[in-house]
Design a protein that fits this description.
Elements: H1 7-17, E1 22-23, H2 26-29, E2 48-50, H3 55-68, E3 72-75, E4 92-95, E5 102-106, E6 111-114, H4 120-129, E7 132-133, H5 145-150, H6 158-161, E8 168-174, E9 180-181, H7 196-200, E10 209-216, E11 218-219, E12 223-231, H8 234-246, E13 253-258, H9 259-269, E14 280-288, H10 291-307, E15 314-316, H11 319-330, H12 332-336, E16 340-343, E17 346-347, H13 353-367, E18 373-376, E19 381-387, E20 389-392, E21 395-398, H14 408-421, H15 446-459
Parallel strand pairs: 2-4, 3-4
Antiparallel strand pairs: 1-2, 5-6, 6-10, 7-11, 8-9, 8-10, 12-14, 12-15, 13-14, 13-18, 16-19, 17-19, 18-19, 20-21
Helix pairs in contact: 1-3, 8-10, 13-14
Amino acid sequence: MDNKLSQEILERLIAIVGPEDVIFDREKLEDYSHDEFSLREIRRYPDVVVRPKRTEEVAAVMRLASGARIPVTPRGGATGLCGGCVPLHGGIVLAFEKMNRIIEIDHDNLMAVVEPGVRLGEFSRAVDEAGLSFPPHPGDESAMIGGLIATNAGGSRAVKYGVIRNYVRGLEVVLPGGEVIRPGGKLVKSSTGYSLLHLLVGSEGTLGIITRAIIQILPAAPLSRSLVIPFDDVDGAIEAVPLLMGRKIVPMAVEFVEDEVIRITEEHLNKRWPTSIGRISLLVILDASGDAEMDRLSQVVAEACLEKGALDVFIADTPKKQDLVLEIRSKIYEALKSLTVEILDICVPRAEIPGHVRRVREVSQKYGLWLPTFGHAADGNVHTHIMKARYVEGKMVPIPEEEWRDKVDRVRGELYADAKARGGVLSGEHGIGMVKKPFLSLALDDGQVELMRGIKRLFDPHNILNPGKIFD
């Protein structure tokens, strides 16, 4: 056994969860050493992986870890992009693939009760089959509910339906010392003391370990329709968004996508976007209770966009067309992934998107790096890819490591500084983890960070729970 934990600790872990759910084989530990962030240097091996099946087992592991001062890193689906579930200091990884039950779908209260290892795709299907809906749909479908809550995941529908925080009504949480708390419940309102519930949502597994969640669900989803609207410049595309809001149209989602990434994703999927004109497209997704309302909303959207210089309006008005558009948009990261160093997650006030995108282009030219950019036009969340490739005639062409390696931090720093100057933040939905940690001071003042450190010390006085994430 190549690990730093004593035989006694391993035997006690085996006694808690059983021998099949304690993993310390070096080859198997590789799978638990990383998330989806691309650079291998952030990888760290745990000493052991423990797969609990019940809250009581999680609590027992934490009591053991607290007494022995062993670091513990909770791990969901590992779809994160900033090293949030990487075991920076080794120790124990708590992997939740076996706590994967949908315990209840409560029609009377419109609530679902789930364990943290339930995957988003599975949860969405179960809710749909119950004749209900979970509107946010944040993230990769293989992401786990516990991880979505721990990072306060967002997604493209945040403009109308909010982020995961808006749907978490109650949690069961194991604290670092093994105590179990249950803030919230099947409640829509609570003004009873400080909201520990909302403090734990988005805390990236540094304050407590989620073992059960109560999630708000809604009546069955209404009709939806996608409009693809090409523009020649980002300014007109983004300026159309407040015009829509001013006309009392709140789309389910508004995405902006540059032409370059569409062309690459088309080739990756061997499928075609509805238009090849323009430099940037708006993807506007509407929902409505009936056909007449949908037609009215579509007309208002089309008129507003044409006023701002749209070149045309393409309507995906059949399920097949809509699925095609949504598939191409959802697969952009997959198409770029092999040559992506990092996908940034900056969030600015939505009116600042054009200025920020212009700054991205300036930084791209300054450092000679390709920085394709797309994002959520109506909520200000901008995703810029730092690439180890160039864009040449519709294809990605790799560049040598010496041409990008020493420029990455400077690109990050300049774009994060631009975000701060515009009233923005480093992350809108991915979290800080370990990758963005060195840049946190660009977004938050020392007073805020010190308050956060104080909260961490109160919850986790021995600093054993996901240590080294967000801040040191």
